[in-house]
Amino acid sequence: MLEPTPAYRRAAPWLLAALLALLVLWLALPRLLGMVAERWLTIPGLQALHVDVDQVGAEDARLREVRAVYQSPGGDRLRIVLRDIAVGYSLPRAQVERLDIGSAELEISPGEGTLPASPWPRIEWPVLPWSEVRVGDLRLVLVRSSRSQLDVRGGFLLRQSERQLQAEFRPDGDLLRLTARSPTPQTAESAPEFHVQWVPAVGPGADARLRIGRQPEEQPARLVVQVPLPLLVELARSLGAALPAASASGTLSVQADVQFGAASGSVRVLSGEAEVSAGGIELADAAAPLALALAGKARFAWQASAAELVLQPGLRWQATLAGEQPLQASGRLEKSFALRWDDGLVVNAGEFPFALDSPQWGRWQGTLHRLSLGGGDGLGDWRVADGQLRLTGRVKDWHGEAVRARDLRLAGDVALHWARSAEVSGELALQLDLGPLSWSGDAPLSVQPARWQVSATAAAKAGGDFWNSLVISGEASSAQVEVKPDSGHALTLASSHLQLLRLRFAGQENGAGSGGAGGAAGAEQARGLAAAEGELRIAADGVRFAGGPAPDLRARLRLKGGALRGDGSLLLQGKEVLAFAGSHRLARGCGEATLNAAQSLPALGRLLQPRPAALQALDLQAGEVDARFTLDWCAPSRSPPRLDARGVLAVRAADLGWDQARARAVQARLQLDGVHPLRGRLKFSAQDGELASGTPVADVNVDLALAEKALRVHALRARLLGGSVLSEPLNLPWPPAGETLPLQIRHVDLGQLLALFKVHGLSGSGQIDGLLPLGYDDGGVEIDNGQLSSPGVGIVRYAPTLELPGNPGLLALRNFHFEKLAMRLWYASDGAYRTQATLNGSNPDFYDGYPVRLGLNINGKLPGLFRSAVFSGDFSRHILEQLQSGKLE
Hints:
By secondary structure, the protein is mainly β. A hairpin with a 7-residue loop joins β36 and β37. The longest helix is centred in the first third of the chain and has 35 residues, at 6-40. It is rod-shaped and about 180 Å long. The N and C termini lie far apart (197 Å).
């Protein structure tokens, strides 16, 4: 048995102590390594580093957790958390074989700071200390601000091989792959290439390739991208863009060449081409969904002080707005259209066509001829803008509540100007061809086709005070306008000219765009116009109605203080014949106007050319006329409209003629007290005159007053035929409704009465009294059972030169001395008449004066009998024919 030597005995306690120390060191090694890493791993910007080592082996190690916060010089902040880390390594090769991470969190908060300018670093291919890294569950958070963030998680794999580095991220079954390839060492001038692929589980993927030189400022880079538009929409929404609910389709392809500047991150020149294939975006909106479509190519180029965007021929676009009033805008380029920016000024080259289609407003086509933007320091910073459009359009059939317009055509130019510090303004010059226009309201009418030339300007402040500062001016003219009511005569304007002077919509920002129905909408519009100001001048030449004279109209309308005021005149042959003025209060919908006229009657007769048919027989020989009438109206939003009129028309010292009748020293006064109901008074007097037959008439006096439901006859008297015609004062209902005016005949000379008929050989003597009940129906005078008789004896002689038929009655009339004459008379408004006359007496030359009773019945039709008797005197032919026919009993 061997015994330990004293030397071993002395070494054993130290060896045991050393073994115990090594054991304690091995057990404490993970914690010591963590402390060493936290102490010595000092990377600039790295903060709050914490490493928790679980165990360390000869070929592997496990870490429970690694946490760190990194703050970049530019203000970007990265928070990193790694958990359950397994590291496999080879000590002889000094290489990490693998790195497996159970879960990880990477939170990125972009900063707002800027890095100082520095040159581009040379791009060298990195050699990582590991060949593969796996993360079972990687959570990636991009915090844009407190209002939005991107949060996504999935598996992560990083592989490194010779001249290639590939990373894959798989969120929710999708795949994002980044592949970086290094050129071979022998090709020093070749550039590294980066390839990004997005392979979703469903739908098309995206692809991007970037080739960049080792020295970026010396070698251009090329970027080729193909990405589906739905991915761009979702990515924008994920990054916090406030996009409405939308669905997209199509693909965007971009090829770009980049020349970098000397400073890191700077770009000197950017150029390339972009193409959208079958692009479309639909924005869901319950009120008005919008669909956008685009397909075509565009070339682009940019450098520090100049840029260019060229839309290529064949590019198509379309925007469709659905809803209650759908609208579609579209266009197709047949030639290229370019926007060029040079030294702060953008101008176009070529024309940009477009079309607008609306079921209600028809199809409109236009072309952008000129566009310029200037004054900005960059592409999105402009101080002035100008544009010019050419528009053409047609509305085949447009319907309003009571208005219908057909075949409306428009063509012209529109120019727009904008200045950030000054104002926005526009000018237009249009030719407007109006087809048939109809109004189907209470008084239907139609406006015949007409051509209008329209020019206008508008200007407003470019800031938020747009409506308060908006000013509109313009002119419109037409060669002829014709308005035809459904019944009645047409109104024709030989030429018309409208001039709008400085219409300002002050105070409209509160009322603009407000809706409502019925009275609420009308009241809102009235409140909106309360602060508006402006002036409209109207000049219409040759205003013709019903074949009469064609006066010229001159009028001026002024809008101010919530009221519309106007004045103007009617002119004949350049001389004013009627002046008018009035006002309308917009809030109440009520107004009033005055009409004034004063003329010499002979001068007025010369001006009234050509005469209307109803006044052809009027002869104005002497005298004066003046008139003053007041109109007032009210059209409240919730009540029926109301119109009333009052005034006086006076004729003084007039000598008048109508056909063959004459009246001298005429004094007349027509007083209108109202129209609902019709009220007024008519006074007419004439010193003397003649009827159409030449029969003198004198001391004519007519005084009639019309009140509500009553006609008052104050006076009705005239001296003629040696006697008088008169009516006693009385009241009649109005409308007459079958009532008659009893016209009394007193002491009329029979000889003068028979002379009216101008029948050759007919004469007489004696007097006639009687009563003629006059009525009025269907536009004509009627007599219902009029009665005439002789108060005494008289003589009737009818001795024509023509041979009389062998009728004893006609033979007796050659010299008939009557003791009594009586007649009954009926006359209708259509001219039908019937008379029954009896004469009791004798002819001294016929059967020795034997008593004879004669009966004469005459009937027929004499339209316009009273008109002929008073004015024309041409009514004897029918009477003569019946007398000579022998209709005597």
